[in-house]
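QA checklist item 7 of 12: single-chain prediction sanity check.
[x] sequence parsed
[x] length recorded as 250
[x] structure emitted
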Amino acid sequence: MGSKEIKEEDSIRNKRRTIEYEVRKIADIFFNMYVTSIFPLMYLFFCDELCTRFHSLRTRWRNEVARIIEAGPGISNQKMESERLAHAKLCDLINDVQKAFGSRLTTYLLFVFLDHLARFYFLTYVKPAFLATHPGLQSSFVKDLEPFLFLAHTWTGTYLIAYMSDFLTESSKSVLTDLRNIPLWKLPKECSEQVSFFMTQVQCSNTEMTASGLFVVDKTLLSSIVMSLATYIIVLIQLSPDLGRVFIEN
């Protein structure tokens, strides 16, 4: 076997190893994303289930009010009372979800925030300095793509958490629109009192999702994270010479 053929075989093996390494690297990235997505997926599942139940309750309430108005005086308000109690139980479930996921929400969002700062410092200061002292190293496509996958993954998860939390709060209050539009003069006295009581209950119920009571989780959370990241990135830029002497030169 000639030296040319040997070189060609070595080149094929090196290309094969490179492809296998890139595939394993991509698999590791997606596996890590899957692991970090387990908690958001569980939280989103519970939020979506509660939103569906609130929507179903609102539909049943509309049908019940229309039935009572059509039937006229003398009809029982027992069904209206059961729907009011069902709404109260759903609000209690929101509080249970908040207690179960509050600390996890705090931890998840905290590490997302810290991960952004660490990656910014590494990609802006540490990696360029390291590559400058090791000119023989070359960056691969997967390594260059990984920061963009990280941004897409974390911001998609954070947006869905904020959106579903906000949507859950809106769903719990959506029945207020129907309650305000009910013509009370068409209802029996007991039923009109029940509607007023239900309206007061919905208005006084606290269904905002919070992260262990530290902050409200809604769509304004995204702008708060962006503003906080911008503030701390400016601090990192200002401290970069001192940090460079500590971490890079050593």
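[x] summary fact logged: Residues 39-248 form one domain.
[ ] second reviewer sign-off
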